[in-house]
Automatic annotation (TrEMBL), chain A:
Part of the FGAM synthase complex composed of 1 PurL, 1 PurQ and 2 PurS subunits. GO terms for cellular component: cytoplasm. GO terms for biological process: 'de novo' IMP biosynthetic process. The gene is purQ. This is Phosphoribosylformylglycinamidine synthase subunit PurQ.
Automatic annotation (TrEMBL), chain B:
Part of the phosphoribosylformylglycinamidine synthase complex involved in the purines biosynthetic pathway. Catalyzes the ATP-dependent conversion of formylglycinamide ribonucleotide (FGAR) and glutamine to yield formylglycinamidine ribonucleotide (FGAM) and glutamate. The FGAM synthase complex is composed of three subunits. PurQ produces an ammonia molecule by converting glutamine to glutamate. PurL transfers the ammonia molecule to FGAR to form FGAM in an ATP-dependent manner. Monomer. Part of the FGAM synthase complex composed of 1 PurL, 1 PurQ and 2 PurS subunits. SUPFAM superfamilies: PurM C-terminal domain-like (SSF56042), PurM N-terminal domain-like (SSF55326). Residues 75-190, 437-559 form the PurM-like N-terminal domain. GO terms for cellular component: cytoplasm. This is Phosphoribosylformylglycinamidine synthase subunit PurL. Keywords: ATP-binding, Cytoplasm, Ligase, Magnesium, Metal-binding, Nucleotide-binding, Purine biosynthesis. Substrate binds at S95, H96, N97, H98, R117, Q241, E313, S314, Q315, S533.
Length: 234, 736
């Protein structure tokens, strides 16, 4: 699998993502500067990592969504390419309208850096194939603007078409949108991640790339990456 | 020209700038004429307490700074130690106390930004941030505002630049009501053959300005930090700088990219006193002169004077001396990162700093006397008041109730509310996050090396006995690093005290340094960098002023050759829980005494540095060979609090046996005797045998297992109850 990590000014989790990808592919992913206008030839997966692109001084991800590289990423996605956006990357994908919805300030108006539990809502996608449907895994989250919101119509569409990728839940899988212990940032329907219509673009707020090594506390995030490799190698 | 500049320079103006009559006399004799307004500004900031260390320098020199693993000690932007495999850890702690009272968010944020620059300016990628915070009485209405702003500021800056905040400490005490302490520490890693220093060299070499543009913010910030607060402190808000962590992130990446080339001769960040201190120090250290033309300085406001530009403390700026033929190569890198880049001068052989602006020479000062004749004071000292002797103790509540109150009290309650606002995992190298071990553990990327990092000080001990308190702060940092299995290497110190013009404060300062020096020598734990913050006073409307508790905060760094050997607090089931180190049951200045009896009496617990070293070396060896599975040093709150913290950190409970006979239960369980560790081992008897051989006192406390903490009385406190009590304080204070 040839992965390309896009780096914007202010991106800060590109190294974490590179380590996670290197761990499953055995080679370093390409780092692509935001001013490039093309992706490396043969790219199988584009990753928009976390950080504070342009300082997030405007709406998170709003500036990056207009960076030169984004045109190439739109093309890539339109042709059925696989795109993963994590944290600021998810925010950028919503600002670029490659994914529906938006991310507001966390409900408690504070940055949240803690472990959370995510429930896998479907496992027939390249991003989730190494989990079973309903599996719950632990992952760190670290963001100030992760409160997922969309219009009632969009939410209904996401639910009706099974495009919710992950939800914030209790360790036992129980979901309670109104409980800040279980749905820490106040997201609608406790949504932590969503898919595009063709299931090839996935955005999520938490950081599975920071939990891929027992030394750092576990490998709970690793199935995302091993699944992608298996799906995209052939 | 502004009205300010047209003011005549005289002794009265010098006094307004914070110079004494004698200091102004020295300025006149160095210059041989009346200085210009800009020159007076430069003298006043370079000779401020903040920049010149005039009250502290003579004493700082007594601290040990050398060891075979020390590469650069004090005198550079940060300390540098050898961590093996050709790598170095570069670290320092610095205060931003005064700005953080005036404007907590920006004060704390720019504190983090400033210390980051001190570290990456030497060529290191920052890998961890820590902090040491002291706030006033939780019941004081100001405290909530300051805690909120400081925590948001620390997080806002560190999270955005993408450096994990992995550790820290927090105390509350009314003595910090009008003067909180914000001490920020950064640790970076560099190759030993790519460390960058600040001494300028090469007459004719270009002097480059990079980073944010210069504005009028923070003018005279260094002078403000060198005076006491009065009731008008909040009116000083314009002297507080405003941070931009996004630009800092770009600056880190651009500087590291430039540092991978051989273009740089010398580099320094513009910290306190901005362009003045960076240019004066770089040229002064290199024994060269420097000419600057301020017309070329990137500015974000119009009509700035030379004085304003030289004294501005606008953030996120660096000064670089380049090799002459590398300007365009460097410019291309800063263009890529969309940062301002300007050639603003060059090095000369005059030995003077010459400042030009709009064709006029605004300053022309000989550098050698500016540095060499900076004032040094041996201010008078007086012994501090001794604490009241302890009254005979009657325990009014019993062990169980006392434990519940202690783990919920402001100084011991869970800090999760705070550290959950700091990104602790960015970088993907955080092996032990905040609260999981006595020191944070960060892996060095692409190696097996681990760094163990901690910040420590017990101000109430320092007030009762500054010498002992200074030593204890160093010993506790050493102990916290040891308790993870790491080998302690060196410390950075951040000495926060009241006004040095008060003899009893100066006495505390001198004593604390004496104690620190003793401990550093006994533990082979030298001081490699540091910062002094004096005049931490709050003036009341009636004219009296209250000093903070003496707070010599210590930032400690240790190394693990194999990071996988590190242990934390979490214990598995079925272990013997053992106490190593001698217990005398000393309750003087303990948290128990304060929280249960409302007294702050007695001498702090004794510190035997030979025992400290013996016990610590014993524990470290047994962690490294896998005998000790979990470890926690015994600190505030004593043994029972330590065991409760271990239960709360993991899944296993603990069943405790009877306390030491012949000792009151509260003295055994809550006494704060030093140099002790609670450890979990598979075979307590075998450990006891080894301990006897090593001369380390050892006794069994109990066994891990069960669902909660079972006291000798047979009563069990569930883990849920412990956690509930422990985590109540911060949300109750802050989220109401």
């Amino acid at each position: 699998m040839k992965a390309a990590i896009v780096v914007f000014p202010g991106t800060n989790r590109e190294r974490d993502m590179a380590i996670a990808l290197r761990g499953v592919t055995g080679h370093a992913p390409a780092m692509v500067w935001h001013r490039e206008d093309a992706l490396p030839a043969g790219t199988d997966l584009v990753v928009l990592p976390g950080g504070f692109s342009y300082g997030d001084y405007l709406r998170c991800g709003a500036m990056a969504a207009h960076a030169p590289i984004m045109a190439a990423i739109r093309d890539f996605a339109a042709k059925g390419g696989h795109v993963l956006g994590v944290c600021n990357g998810f925010q950028i994908l919503t600002e670029a309208q490659l994914l529906p919805g938006a991310l507001l300030r966390n409900a408690a108006l504070r940055f949240l850096s803690q472990d959370c539990f995510l429930r896998v809502e479907r496992n027939d996608t390249p991003f989730t194939r190494h989990w079973a449907k309903g599996d719950v895994f632990r992952t760190p989250m670290a963001h100030g603007d992760g409160n997922y919101i969309a219009s009632a119509d969009t939410i209904r569409m996401l639910e009706d078409t099974d495009r919710v990728a992950f939800r914030y839940v209790a360790e036992d899988g129980r979901m309670d949108e109104g409980d800040p212990q279980l749905n820490p940032n106040g997201s609608m329907h406790a949504i932590a991640g969503v898919f595009s219509e063709n299931l090839r673009v996935c955005g999520m707020m938490p950081h599975p790339e920071d939990l891929v090594d027992p030394l750092m506390g576990g490998e709970d995030g690793k199935p995302l990456f091993t699944g992608l490799v298996e799906a995209l190698v052939g | 020209m502004s009205a300010k500049v047209s003011r005549p320079v005289d002794e009265a103006l010098a006094r307004e700038f914070g110079l004494t009559a004698e200091e102004y006399g020295n300025v006149l004799s160095i210059m041989g004429r009346t200085p210009t307004f800009t020159e007076l500004g430069i003298f006043s900031v370079m000779w401020s307490e903040h920049c010149s260390y005039k009250s502290s320098r003579a004493f700082l020199k007594t601290l040990p700074t050398k060891a075979p693993w020390v590469i650069h000690g004090p005198g550079e932007n940060a300390g540098v130690v050898d961590i093996g495999q050709g790598l170095a850890a570069i670290f320092k702690m610095e205060s931003h106390n005064h700005p953080s009272f005036i404007e907590p968010y920006q004060g704390a944020a720019t504190g983090v930004g400033g210390i980051l620059r001190d570290v990456f300016t030497m060529g290191a990628r920052p890998v961890a941030n820590l902090n040491a915070l002291r706030f006033g009485d939780p019941n004081n209405p100001q405290t909530r505002r300051i805690v909120d702003g400081v925590v948001r500021g620390v997080g806002g800056y560190g999270n955005c630049v993408g450096v994990p905040t992995v550790g820290g400490e927090i105390n509350f005490h009314p003595a910090y009501d009008g003067n909180p302490l914000v001490n920020a520490m950064t640790v970076g890693v560099a190759r030993q053959d790519r460390i960058f220093l600040s001494a300028a060299a090469g007459v004719g070499n270009p002097v480059i300005y990079v980073g944010s543009r210069t504005g009028r913010d923070g003018i005279h910030g260094a002078t403000m930090s060198s005076s006491e607060f009065d009731e008008d402190a909040l009116a000083k808000r314009p002297t507080v700088q405003v941070g931009d962590p996004f630009v800092e992130k770009l600056l880190i990446e651009a500087c590291l990219e430039l540092m991978a080339t051989d273009a740089i001769v010398a580099i320094q960040d513009m910290g306190a006193a901005g362009l003045t201190s960076s240019s004066v120090e770089m040229a002064g250290k290199g024994g060269v002169g420097i000419d600057l033309d301020l017309d070329h300085v990137p500015q974000r406001e119009r009509g700035m004077t030379a004085y304003e530009m030289m004294l501005s403390e606008s953030q996120e700026r660096m000064l670089i001396v380049l090799r002459p033929d590398r300007t365009e190569q460097a410019r291309a890198i800063f263009d890529k990162w969309e940062l301002d880049f300007a050639v603003i001068g060059h090095l000369t052989d005059t030995g003077n700093i010459v400042i030009r602006h709009r064709g006029e020479v605004e300053a022309d000062i000989p550098l050698a006397p500016l540095a060499d004749q900076a004032p040094v004071y041996h201010r008078p000292t007086a012994p501090a008041l001794k604490p009241q002797p302890m009254e005979p103790i009657i325990d009014p509540v019993g062990v169980e109730q006392a434990l519940i109150r202690l783990i919920g009290c402001p100084d011991l309650a869970s800090r999760a509310w705070v550290y959950n606002q700091y990104d602790s995992t960015v970088g993907g190298q955080t092996v032990r996050r905040p609260g999981a071990a006595d020191a944070a553990i960060v892996k060095v990327e692409d190696t097996e090396i681990g760094l163990a990092l901690t910040t420590d000080c017990t101000p109430r001990y320092c007030r009762a006995n500054a010498k002992l308190g200074g030593a204890q702060a160093v010993a506790e940092a050493w102990r916290n690093i040891t308790a993870t299995g790491a080998r302690p290497l060196a410390v950075t110190d951040n000495l926060n005290f009241g006004s040095p013009e008060k003899p009893e404060v100066m006495g505390q300062f001198v004593d604390a340094i004496a104690g620190m020096g003793e401990a550093c020598r006994a533990l082979d734990f030298p001081v490699v960098s540091g910062n002094v913050s004096l005049y931490n006073e709050t003036r009341a409307p009636d004219g009296t002023s209250q000093s903070i508790l003496p707070t010599p905060a210590i930032g400690g760094l240790g190394v693990l050759e194999d990071v996988r050997t590190a242990v934390g607090l979490e214990m598995p089931d079925g272990c013997d829980i053992m106490l190593l180190g001698e217990t005398k049951g000393q309750l003087g200045q303990s948290i128990w005494l304060r929280e249960i009896l409302g007294a702050q009496d007695g001498e702090p617990p004794e510190l035997d540095l030979a025992a400290e070293r013996r016990n610590g070396d014993f524990v470290r060896g047994l962690i490294q060979n896998g005998t000790i599975i979990a470890c926690h040093d015994v600190a505030d709150g004593g043994v029972l609090v330590a065991v409760a913290e271990m239960v709360m950190a993991g899944q296993a409970g603990c069943v405790l046996g009877a306390p030491q006979s012949g000792m009151r239960p509260e003295a055994f369980w809550f006494g704060e005797d030093q140099s002790r560790y609670v450890v979990a081992v598979r075979d307590g008897q075998a450990l006891a045998t080894l301990a006897v051989q090593a001369g380390v006192p050892c006794r069994k406390l109990g066994r891990s297992g069960g669902q909660g903490l079972t006291l000798p009385s047979g009563s069990t406190i569930s883990k849920a109850r412990l956690l509930a009590v422990h985590s109540e304080f911060f949300p109750r204070l802050m989220d109401r």
